[in-house]
Amino acid sequence: MKKLRQSWLNLDHTVLHAAPLIWQDWLSNPHSLTQLIAEKTQSTVTVEVLSDCRQGLLADEAALFGNSIHRCRIREVYLCVNDVPVVFARSVLPTSSSTGVNRDVLQLGSKPLGEVLFKKGKAPILLREITEIPGLGWGRRSLYQLRGHPILISEFFLPELLDQMK
Fold first, then answer.
1. For labelling alongside 80, which of 41, 44, 151, 154 has CA 20 to 30 A away?
2. At which positions is substrate bound (predicted)?
3. Annotated binding residue at 113?
4. What are 117-143's pLDDT values in tens digits?
């Protein structure tokens, strides 16, 4: 899943309707993805942390931050249902977004980031884009504002997600 350089399109009605109907709700849902997966699969969602370290941004990610940030904490995880990966997620956490009042994002461990983002309701979304990865499926990325600081989350819906729905 390392090849994340995709052609991202701003999410609007026209772009959303280009996606298959089965994925449209997933791509446009503004709430916690972990919670949505749990509801639709009627199962507990677990997090498998693949990496969580400081590293450089991809060019398109840096552009979203106005090219003012070059290294961030990058967290890559699988969201799993019944030990099956159903979503690959990549979170970009600038240093300024994970200190002070936001230091709880540094202590996630195997908890979903959504627990922090949606702790007190809905986190403001500054930008939502979607993409299709040929042969794999659809993804979305959202630029959230957590207590005044940006956090970018890219989520790719794996085909196994549909197999887990009840």
1. 151
2. 75, 113, 155
3. yes
4. 887 666 778 899 999 888 778 999 999
E strands, the chain, are: 9-10, 45-56, 71-81, 84-93, 125-133, 137-146, 149-157
Q: How far apart are CA 35 and CA 93, in angstroms?
A: 21
| pLDDT tens by residue, 26-35 | 999 988 899 9
pLDDT score recorded for residue 98? 58
Overall fold of domain 9-164: Chorismate lyase (3.40.1410)
Count of CB atoms within 10 A of residue 125's CB?
A: 14
Q: Where are the alpha helices (DSSP H) in the chain?
A: 13-16, 21-28, 33-41, 59-64, 114-117, 160-164
Token pair belonging to 156: 């790719």
Q: CA separation (Å) from 148 to 52, 61, 99, 115, 144? A: 22, 19, 12, 17, 9
Annotated binding residue 75 = yes
Q: Cα(77)–Cα(154) distance, rounded to whole angstroms?
A: 11
Tens-place pLDDT, residues 136-166:
789 999 998 877 778 899 999 999 998 988 6
Q: Which two tokens stand for residue 142?
A: 């959202």
